[in-house]
Amino acid sequence: MAHHxxxxxxxxxxxxxxxxxxxxxxxxxxxxxxxxxxxxxPIPADPLAGYGPAIKVLASMVxxxxxxxxxxxxxxxxxxLREMYAALVHLVMSGLLxxxxxxxxxxxxxxxxxxxxxxxxxxxxxxRWRAFFATPVPNKVDLKRLYEKLINGDFESLKDQPxxxxxxxxxxxxxxxERRAILSHVEVFQERLEKLVEKWRATLADDMVGExxxxxxxx
Length: 219
Known about the structure:
mainly alpha; elongated
């Protein structure tokens, strides 16, 4: 198959007109077929294989992946842990979005179809987070309300975003404005972490008082 692809590319390079276009189209089609079946090739040809651990980490960043979510609201410490985990997730996602490169172009339909379900989910995942964090919010009060919705697992607003594909129109993105919007979210998450730390301190102080009272009773 690799030899056939090389022949098609060579034909496209030395041909003209309709013959060149036909060879290019067949080469593209063959490349996409190879990509679709890359994990079944004799020689591994999956450039994303090394990112498996990172993908697993990202998968844990959606509210449904929060390992402490089911324990929330039972004990004060459990609830604090759940909220702190969510705040840290949002800070990490904000950092990833701030460090990503500029958009090059939309993914066309043929490329989208060649991706695995896992890869499509990953692309859509980033797009949904970007749509949320890159949307300016009028004031910090509104940001805090949105933050509380996400803390409580209300992720539906992000799920409504369409997956990237060749069907959507090219959109000119204001990267500078987008980064400013993301930073406004980061400021709220930072403030939330500071308040959570204060709650932990108060909890620790209460525990120490309780231990002192118990010691006095035992004496």
